[in-house]
Amino acid sequence: PAPVRGAATAAPAPVSATAASTVPVSAETTAHTVTLVTGERVTLRADGSVVVAPRPGAEADYVTRRLDNDVFVIPLTALPYLGRTLDPALFNVSALAEAGVTTTPVRARATAGATAPPSGPAFGAALAKQIGAEAAKGSVGEGPLFGGVTSVAPAVATDGVRDTPRPSARAGHADHPVKVTVLGTDGKPLPGTTSFALANADDAARYQEPFLDAVDGAARVEVPAGHYTAMVSAPAFDSAGEPAGVRMATAEFTVPDGGTGTEAVLDLRKATERVTFSTPRPAEEHQLILRYLRQDAKGAVAVGGGVGVSGGPPVQVQPSGRPVTTGDLRFDVYTHRKAPADAATPYSYDLKLANPAGTIAKNQHYKVTGRQLATVRTNYHSDTPGRAEEVARLMYLPYETSGEALSEPFKAPARRTEYVGGSAGASYADWLKAGERRFVSRQQPLVPGRTTTVDWLRGPLVPGFTEPARGAAADETWYCAACRKGDALTFSLASATVMDSAGHHVLAVPSDITSSHFAVVSGDTTLYEGDGVPGGILTVPPKQAPYTVVYDQTRTNGDFRQSLTTHTEWSFASGHSGGQTVPDNWTCVSEAGEYDGPGDCSALPVVVPHYRLDAGLDGTSPAGDGHLVVGFGHVPGVVAPPAVTKARVEVSFDGGERWTAAATTALGKGRFRADWTTPDEAAGRDASLRVTGTDSGGNTVTQTVKSAFTVAAARG
């Protein structure tokens, strides 16, 4: 998919005298992580999905609001001050990502002698402390922060909360006054400041406000006549400043044309149904996310957002008396649940379940059976012992274009069984943070009853090409990474990232690549070479000719030991392309250096290796018999690719000074098994690999990986 707001973009890379362009960046490889003023880390993917990690020592509890292309992630502790002391733009992760910040810079105003803590975990801890003190007194959010801070805003230019377009005043059609009352669980106006959303359900463009403040339970606004929808998520806090529960209430009402005033009530007493789950095996709630999507009569989002909590505080919602009659309502729940601490083998549940269209169901207890679940036996590889990692599963229902998840920390290497369940049509994509690198999987459909085994970060980690997700929508744009369109030749690796043996790829930002060199050669002529780029687009002669692409990459990363240095050479033949082989939803680069449709675009016959190395979760293999299964395929988009008929595998135990050829056996369908003997004297040292694959058309790949695995130390 094309880069969107918040995505990293590739720098322009001139590639020849006749063409200059950028290396296409896939949305699958782009994301931006920003630390909020309150210390939570939010990773925003190019599709608008977010993964939230808590500030150190706390839980991640938040609400989201989605307005046009902006995604807001607001910690619950910030809600009582939102729009008053705390500028909502502090939590507009889309705008912060676009501004390129990784830690939110702020400017604060205060009365004499008062100061704001530094942006980040210290600010979040101080805010929680104040929330706890105010909660103990019975009212939250009434005064200034930290003894006199009157406003905190981003110190960078952001869009903030954009003004919503309003209709021009017409005679006899002036805006009408509305009083909105937020009632607490005692039936009285809720003290302090409560943020709520309000929108016109006929046409959200007429009125849409995601952040209105009810002060001591009351708010007054002026709106055009029509049907309206409102939603509030109100947390309660304990004396430590942690959420003790969250209630979500809604209201549907009509503002008549010509009326003198309308009153609407958001009544938290009606949020009676607690969201709970039961699973085949005992499991403790780690996170719970509610997704609320209220659409207007034109199908546009009127109120979009949700609630995310961790640690198990009660979350209660207001069930619907009947389906909405203007527009539509979609409500679903997601939970990540973990095995008890004393479980013999770790396991988890990820469940994404929809309510009937137009309603919030009266029964919010979700009972899941084994027949609804897919089983994923997951191996988390780590070549450094005890590496700190975080995992999250983004789940999507058919009507959703983005997802939300909280990350779960753990230590790798590790194994666990993961059960995944959801309503019809659910799909999911996984996200893994290893050290400071973030890896993602392709989105895939959820198939109940299926059992699969998945390896994360199984080596070697090498440069490669991403592929479209299985079952991707026919109208989802995909940029061809190795194609010929007319006489424009594109060769673009996965945004200078690396991939593991299962095809999981690291997000392009931040990069740990400290040096790289890319070159394109034809015969004795070097057509292009450059440092720090993962590919290029160049205009070449129309005549069929041989080409060799060379890419060297060195990474520096204290969280990884292996596969940090690679050298890859791809050789193939290509001539003028006047026909189309790629799917109709693909985009290719034209000779003018512009993104264009798939016409006259054909994928290059580029051979790619896929590894299955016989090594443990810790990246070690014992001395003695060693083996590798390597499969060879071609880049996405190649039609009827030539069969890979030859393979050569070599192993070095001295850093590449001397190489030993392995015995290779063809297994069929481009797969080969390589066997060798690892000498006893190599124990405790790293071993390097060099593999070569050749197809029947003469196209080849040779890839050298330094320190691909480690020979286990001798015992005793």
From TrEMBL:
The protein's name in its UniProt record: Serine/threonine protein kinase
Organism in which the protein naturally occurs: Streptomyces niphimycinicus
Upper taxonomic lineage: Bacteria, Bacillati, Actinomycetota, Actinomycetes, Kitasatosporales
